[in-house]
Write a structure and sequence with these properties.
about 90 residues; alpha+beta; 3 strands; about 45% helix
Amino acid sequence: MRILAAMIPSPAQIRAARSLLGLSRAELADRAAMNAKTLQRLEDGQVSPRAATLEALGRVLEAEGVLFLAPGAEGGEGVRRAPSRSKAPD
């Protein structure tokens, strides 16, 4: 599994990450400072999003704890939760 820090997520990954986090389109759009209708059209493949838009959405979702997975030998692109950053008890 390849995890790329600077990867631009696809619209399908945006949708999957949003679902993984339990966010509505309105919530994600608000956090990314964009219109919810624009996010809907992006996720539904009705528009060709700019790289900057995908990067902005990716940053918001990564800040919420999502990792974007690049296609590799183990399978296609995907998303997963990032490992917890909590410190182990002493």
